[in-house]
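As a warm-up, study this chain.
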Amino acid sequence: MGNLATLDIIIFLIYFVVVAGYGIWIYKKKKSAASGSKDYFLAEGSLTWWAIGASLIASNISAEQFIGMSGEGFFVGIAVAAYEWIAAIALIIIAVWFIPIYLKNKIYTMPQFLETRYNKSVSLIMAVFWLFLYVIVNLTSILYLGAVAIDTLLGGDNLHIIMIGLLLMALLIGLGGMKVIGYTDVIQVAVLIIGGFATVYMALQIVDQRINGAAVGNALTGFQTLMNEAPQHFKLMLEKPVKTTTTLAMPENLDVQKYVVLPGLAMYFAGQWIVNLNYWGCNQYITQRALGADLKTARTGILFAGFLKLFMPIIVMLPGIAAYVLYSKGHLTGFNGVKDGAYSAILGFLPVGLKGLAVAALTAAIVASLAGKVNSISTIFTLDIYKKYLKADATEIQMVRTGRWAIIIAMFVALAFTWTDVLGIGGEGGFTFIQKYTGFISPGVFAMFLLGMFWKRTTGTAALVGVILGFVLAIFFNSFAVDIFGKETWLYTAFTYEKLENGVVHTITEIPFLINMGWSFVITIAAMVLISLAGPKVNPKAFAIDATMFRVDNRTLVLVVVTLLLLTALYVRFW
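Now compare it with the structure written out below.
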């Protein structure tokens, strides 16, 4: 295994045997029991709050976080932690206000929500759209970025073998259903956190050794060194560049590139909330973990995940900043400065034994996300397409079998797209690639869910217009707005900068995509409201809501308060 020593290989194999063995044990136990489709797809009533919380984190933290967010940490710094820290607030909102509506109305899939609240047309359109998004964007990016990272760590030339290995491990777990995924995720997230923190600890020691010349590195001193050597990387709010047109020869060119990815304070009034609330509250891949539980268990699990999110930037972002400081001081020989290679560059410093643990942690994150994603794909396909439109009289056994075939097919489609990086994920930057292209549908989808839950007048026609309009507006702002309205309007400021890729200079003009998302959402909401005003004052399909649904017990309130206090402290410190 390339650069791994015997001890590293042994540690990795222990991880593999434990996870695979536990997954097979759960699978065989389930196979002998009379399990129905809801048990297979949702693990109905069997996941504890800590299993739900761990599964949410394991499914969320994957290659795009380890590799992509670490790359953004290398490039931008702590500002990218907003995705993790605002997620903690988003999870509070989901736990208190969204989940009660889902559970009271016995919602098991997101297309089912749309059919129950609106109509079958909206549901079918979005079911097909989600399947396309999950397979072509999410699965491919997770598989590609993860395989590239592990291949780099192992010395290269094994990319396709690693892709196949990750795929087979995810299949082994995914075919067992949500119960297998949920409980193996507990092991996966434990490996992820232990390996992640161990990597960060060693990275900070290495910074102290290489930058300060310490014989035995001190992690706290290393962290202080990062703050001293790269103070600009520890600012949550990026200032808006004064110059809107820059070239490679200008120092402001880099500032513009950073700002279009994370547009400072403006993103907190625009796309950042849409990204998080849509991802955590309107996403089958995530909400599926809680939809089979009772309200108390689901809420506690989601809030537990929100609490853990506060610590994720330490694992997934800090190594990128460490790589930046080491690279800027000439201590990362062989690293070409491409941001998505930052995490692997840091792993190359790790000693024997710890490198195996780091590979296991990275593998755990990738496999858990792949398995969770394909389970959501099979759930939507089986319950919302196969059962409703292809075989209405399907038995429980046929539905489970169909779900398993959907998993296998989705995996191999993703493998075909990643084999030669057809989508250009590596060039875009993994984390930005996912956020940007998911952002094309997020404004319309979130508007449709938000109004559907909390405004009884919203109509099915408005929902259909909303999801189409949100997508069209996102495309318009991304590709056409500047040509029509110019670079500077009261809605946005566009930036022109130069970027060097493979020796070729590209001139790019764009509006920050989080600003695009914000305006797409606002205009979509306005259009949906106007259309719905032409309908009845209370839509016949509106959900019945009362204040008692949103009451929280003392344990829930304590979790909310503790999370908010910690988050406030972080923003005060790094503002």
